[in-house]
Amino acid sequence: MPTLALAQTATPPGAVIDASVVDYKLGSGDKIRVTVYGEPSLSGEFFVSGSGMTSLPLIGDVKAVGLTVREFQDAVQKALSDGYLREPRVSAEVLNFRPFYILGEVMKPGTYPYTSGLTVLNAVATAGGYTYRAEKKQVFIKHDGQTTETKMPLEPSTTVAPGDTIRIGERFF
Fold first, then answer.
1. Number of neighbouring beta carbons within 10 Å of residue 92
2. Please, are residues 123 and 115 in contact by the beta-carbon 8 Å criterion?
3. CATH 3.10.560.10 spans which residues of the chain?
4. Whole-angstrom Cα distance, residue 140 to residue 132?
5. 3-state per-residue secondary structure call for the chain
6. Which residues are CB-neighbours of 152 under 8 A, at least 6 positions away?
């Protein structure tokens, strides 16, 4: 399972999600592990809900969407220190990233689980391959949180980020 526990920097279109470089923002559908040291009843695996919150024992809902792992960790730590625990130590990591979406000229368009290092070619293979009408020289990618898609050359190194929507266009004869 891919894990990510470091604060990172923003993901440019087509960039690889690398735990030492990228500032991954949590989103709806991510599964995270929260560990509160010395408090096993407060630790566990949690999902970021559609409302952008994560429900944790004792403190209830904590905002997660749009926060980096480090920011989320700090928010949980602050919530626990506000009258519940003295000097809580909290760590958080992403266990499963939110899915990616692929549509257009592929055999089985739909939603698929994200895996670390995923490329557009891997995503197309996951979706059953190209249809006979597929444009194989360019791809359209809309990153999670953006409103427009970006046209990119379809190369073996073109990568996908969690929550991305990939569209394989139709070629003109």
1. 26
2. no
3. 100-168
4. 18
5. CCCECCCCECCCCCCCCCCCCECCECCCCCEEEEEECCCHHHCEEEECCCCCEEEECCCEEEECCCCEHHHHHHHHHHHHHCCCCCCCCEEEEEEECCCEEEEECECCCEEECCCCCCEHHHHHHHCCCECCCECCCEEEEECCCCCCCEEEECCCCCECCCCCEEEECECCC
6. 13, 14, 138, 139, 140, 141, 158
Query: Could you read off the pLDDT of 108-124 as tens digits, one per residue?
Result: 999 999 988 899 999 99
Pair of tokens at residue 121: 């070619």
Class of domain 100-168: alpha beta
- 95 — alpha (psi -120 to 50), left (phi > 0) or beta? alpha
Q: Which two tokens stand for residue 130?
A: 């190209």
Fold observed for domain 1-97: wza like fold (3.30.1950)
Looking at the chain, the domain(s) classified CATH 3.30.1950.10 span 1-97
Structure confidence by residue, pLDDT tens digits, 58-109: 999 999 999 999 999 999 999 999 988 999 999 999 999 999 999 999 999 9
